[in-house]
Amino acid sequence: MTTFDQTINRVGFACKIQKSHDVAVKELNTSTTTIKWLTAQTKAKSEQRLWDLVKQNVSALYHQIQWVGALPHNQRMFRITSDLLPAYTHSDWLAFYFQPDMTNWLERNLLECGELARALDVRLSFHPGQFCVLASENPQVVENSISEFEYHADLARYMGYGKTFQDFKINVHIGGKQGPDGIKRAVRSLSREARNCLTIENDEFKWGLEHSLELVDTCALVLDIHHHWIRTGEYIEPDDSRILRVLDSWRGVRPVIHYSCSREDVLVDHDTATRPDIKELKGLGFTSTSLRAHSDYYWNHACNRWAMSHNDWADIMCESKQKNLASQKFCNTALV
DNA sequence: GAGGGTCAAGTCCGT
DNA sequence: ACGGACTTGACCCTC
């Protein structure tokens, strides 16, 4: 049982609804602050600021879900920003977020967000940031990373998710020097809800698809097809045997893959009807780093066709600078 | 209002 | 050694 309709082939986008002429963006915007600023204020003032941010951000989340829920059914997928509750995992503000007034408020209001998402059939996820390194060789970093991951799991739980395997996705990279074994160790310390939500994504440099596949029995695997291309030069095809194993890791739930594209201002004169050839590009002096940066839009039609050919077996999370503007355009133009 | 420096945290690449 | 990149530039201060 899942919380979204699995017969829909979705294309989604991440974190932020980009301004366009017909959108009132203000109520859709989340805000944040810094630890430094909070620390410089009186307790009353910093707590007031955090309360204001919590209310603004949860309200923004509700409106974001509403907005995504009004899109065509096959575009109802959205990654929520990690900045929803600023400073949640900083030790100075832990108590603030666990006071009864706050937990009651979050329970009530985040549940409404979750219920709205389920009613509108919006598939939701999180992607904790670069500081969440569950497989770090530094035990302190692992401990902090588990807290960071559990913060996202708390949010999912408040929203009414985490109850069944992959009713909600919280995606991280393997990261760190411990690799897949480090992930297996860290998973033992995660809550049940966190384990239900955890997905692992292959990265461009250190831990690729062959490493994440070691975790097929641990959690669901997110295939990032652009990372895989950066790492190997290969445009992986839907009938590849490794994809069957990725599919297995989802245990019957419809998988999610990630799709991004090298920046258009890096590959300035590149033919938009031909997929970039990484060997050729490296011969011309392009570095992996320069090719991994995300484009504003999905400018390469050949890549788009290839990416869309994966939509039969997986939902496609778009990672591009122009967010919904790019994913909508991709969705509407990349016909297989 | 525009512009620039700054921001909790990890890890890697490229120069 | 240091800047940039990553799921995301936003925010605060000064002028």
Strand order of the largest sheet: 1-2-3-4-5-6-7-8
Radius of gyration: 20 Å
Q: How many distinct beta strands?
A: 8
- Overall structural class, as computed from helix and strand content, comes to alpha/beta
Unreliable residue stretches: none
Into which percentage range does the β-strand content fall? Answer: 5-15%
Mass-distribution shape: globular
- The percent range for helix content is 40-55%
Taken in chain order, the helices and strands follow as EHHEHHEHEHHEHEHHEHHHEH
Q: What is the mean pLDDT?
A: 91
Query: In whole angstroms, how far apart are the ends?
Result: 30 Å
Major sheet details: 8 strands, parallel, barrel
Summed up, the helix count is: 14
Spell out the key features of this protein.
336 residues; alpha/beta; eight-stranded parallel β-barrel; 14 helices
Give the secondary structure arrangement, pairings included.
Layout: E1 11-14, H1 35-40, H2 43-69, E2 77-80, H3 94-98, H4 100-120, E3 123-126, H5 139-158, E4 169-173, H6 179-187, H7 192-197, E5 198-201, H8 209-212, E6 220-224, H9 225-232, H10 241-249, E7 256-259, H11 278-283, H12 288-292, H13 301-308, E8 315-318, H14 323-333
Parallel strand pairs: 1-2, 1-8, 2-3, 3-4, 4-5, 5-6, 6-7, 7-8
Helix pairs in contact: 2-4
The protein binds a DNA duplex (15 and 15 nucleotides) through α1, α5 and α12.
Characterise the protein shown here:
It is a single chain. The protein has 336 residues and is an alpha/beta fold. It contains 14 helices and eight strands. It has helices at 35-40, 43-69, 94-98, 100-120, 139-158, 179-187, 192-197, 209-212, 225-232, 241-249, 278-283, 288-292, 301-308, 323-333, and strands at residues 11-14, 77-80, 123-126, 169-173, 198-201, 220-224, 256-259, 315-318. An eight-stranded parallel barrel has the order 1-2-3-4-5-6-7-8, surrounded by five helices. The longest helix has 27 residues, at 43-69. The chain is globular. It binds a DNA duplex (15 and 15 nucleotides) through helix 1, helix 5 and helix 12.
